[in-house]
Amino acid sequence: MTLKFFDKLSRNFIELLSDKDDYNVIIIIKNEKSFTAHSNVLKCRSPYFRKELKNIIPNENNIKTITIPNISKKIFDVILEYIYGGIVDLENVETKFIFDLMMTASEFEIEELTKKLENLLIETKSSWLKSHFSLVYRSIFSGNNFSDLEKFCNDIVVKYPNLIFDAQDFTSLQESALISLLKRDDLQLKEVIIWEYVIKWGIAQNSTLPVDFNEWTKENFITLKTTLQQCMPLIRYFHISNADFWSKVEPYKKIFDKQLWKDLNQHLIVPDQPVKSKILPPRSILIQELPTRTTGQAKHSTTRTTEQAKYSTTDLEKFCNDIVVKYPNLIFDAQDFTSLQESALISLLKRDDLQLKEVIIWEYVIKWGIAQNSTLPVDFNEWTKENFITLKTTLQQCMPLIRYFHISNADFWSKVEPYKKIFDKQLWKDLNQHLIVPDQPVKSKILPPRSILIQELPTRTTGQAKHSTTRTTEQAKYSTTPTTEQAKHSTSHTTEQVKHSTRSTEQTEFSTIITQEHVAEISSWIDRKSSPYSLYVPYKFVLILRGSVNGFEPQTFWDTCHGHSGTVVVMKVKGTDEILGGYNPLIWDANAVNIPGYGGCWEKTNDSFIFSLKNGNIQNSILSRVKIRDYAIFNAYKNYQIHYGPHFGHNLCMYSSSSNFTFDDNMCSNYDGHYEKHIRTTSGEFSIVDYEVFKVIITG
Question: Compositionally biased, Polar residues: which spans (predicted)?
Fold first, then answer.
């Protein structure tokens, strides 16, 4: 029989920690606070302290001093109490504190505490882990101490790989994290896409590799091969199609071992013949329709299989909905919006912070409801009483969640009134009363208005264009942390500043060059949609500058547009029906540095584009996206701003040696190079009649 007295032992050791007489170790935290301890206890409980104390020479009083710079005093106090008494008090502490405590315990090689906290987070704080996914994922691969958390995170990533692979900082991912994902048989990406990501990551680890692939030397390929030596054996090459292999893999044949390359070529030609190299099994793709990859960004709308549905949780739904309510077009403008499950739609309609006007929400709900009933007549005028009953039945769970009393009279009459037959009599009576005498009480329940928080265009990071803006304090609470590139180009223009910057044009008409149809088309290009917006355009174009009002001097452009991001420039070509223009997601910077030989500096982005719009005799619009991101946008140095206007690579430039864009010597050039294709059938210089610059604002 064994008697255990751990409680008393724990209390005695904690008392020893408080004893200031017999200590022989001083631990200094952040050069601010010092803790006293006993070397034998520290060495016994922590391999880290055993190694540290072994290498420290004591002073004349036989006391050893350890300095630890990167840890909070509060966390170290908890660590010491655990070392001495085996007790950790987590009452009334935030989850972030528990996470930081776990990371610190790992650094001190306290395996028992590390594992306990790891399991605690997974079992009781999974919601926090998901909502702070990037922080968690990039922290836990610093060592090999968090196998359970790694699996927890990777179980999410393999199902939603764009969380990591399409992240702005993907190339800074630790090699161990990338390898752990490549090992997974259930990683939900086509193998050729995985290969492209691995190559992208490998190249990013070596800044000396030439940007132009045609300039690569034998040594460059060896460098890449060395970098990827742990990753390459994990690619399932034998399950890449012939076409993809030839276009995506073959250019890098010099980084393959000879035998593997020989076997791969043999497999392409005679796939049934055995090879010497090991053939890894194909990955088990559970997602039938993978998100479309567009310039490193992901669309969030996917068709899920039954297998995926098993993994959905309340916490994950909230995590996703927290994103969707701020950027509703990710779901509501998706091609497969009408296939959205009713429960998902209801969960969004319940949110007070859904960032859409109520009448727009109503239109989407009607669109969804009609799509669920293929027998409803296409011609609304042919609808019968039974058709309205069918729609009413379909929407019986959704309709109570619409905030009808917060729809304007005009919108209500044009958008809601046609569907009055699907409303209950009392609600319809109350709505009509509210339209006529809004101050009178009604019997129906009035839901509160939704809180529209975001006024300016947010950074859209999933299959949509980036718009770098600095938000007001209220907006910043709801925005995501900007990427390095975005932060570099952030501006200090709030919505109020936009109003002031347009004071000379705010009383004029929307545009003398483009129509609302053009706005819808350009907006769809910004969001990389395959077809123009029709039901709802998520952006408003706010006029900043018009040449015929503000003047055609190039300097006027820089004085007016400096600091504005997310802008569209349009120009009417003299003597033709041509309307040309470009979109710049970055800021126009009138304070640009002067790079010798350039007269300014180039800015990088994957999301700018130039275009020609259909107009008059021009039947079709032309879109040309940036091809060489390093030369996407040019900001002229101040000494050259009297001649240079906006430049989109060398493909669309505004320049005037006479400082007037309408003079005959004006050079709005259309050269080839930095963008995908020509936007004019003729090349060379041309003059303009007028030009306008708009700031793109989200409509909410």
Answer: 458-485
